[in-house]
Amino acid sequence: MGIADKVIRIIIAIVIALLFYFKVITGIFGIVLLVFAGIFVLTSFVSFCPLYTIFGFSTCPSKKTE
Questions:
Q1: How far is 32 from 47, CA to CA, in rounded Å?
Q2: Residue 39 · residue 13 · CB < 8 Å
Q3: Which residue ranges make up each domain of the chain?
Q4: Residue in 46, 48, 25 with CA at minimum distance from that of residue 35
Q5: Per-residue pLDDT reduced to its tens digit, 22-49
Q6: Of 13, 3, 16, which is closest to residue 61 (Cα–Cα)?
């Protein structure tokens, strides 16, 4: 997982948390979004997203071998 992907995930999680805190999003929808925000933060810290491996997607810069 690349640095930009990590930063974007953390920013999205912060926005969701703030929207929930200020009661812009509430109820079940708000709780579901908070769970997704938690997953975003967790995957950012461990630098691994299971969905990326399933779909063969990578945001990590490739290492050049010369």
A1: 22
A2: no
A3: 3-55
A4: 25
A5: 999 999 999 999 999 999 999 999 887 7
A6: 3
49 touches 6 (CB < 8 A): no
Closest among 43, 32, 34, 27 to 13, alpha carbons compared: 34
Q: The tokens of 20 are what?
A: 């929930």
Q: Which parts of the chain fold into alpha helices (H)?
A: 3-21, 27-46, 50-55
Neighbours of 10 (CB within 10 A): 15
CB 59 within 8 A of CB 5: yes
- Rounded to two decimals, what is the model's pTM? 0.79
Beta-carbon contacts of 55 under 8 Å, excluding residues fewer than 6 positions away, are none
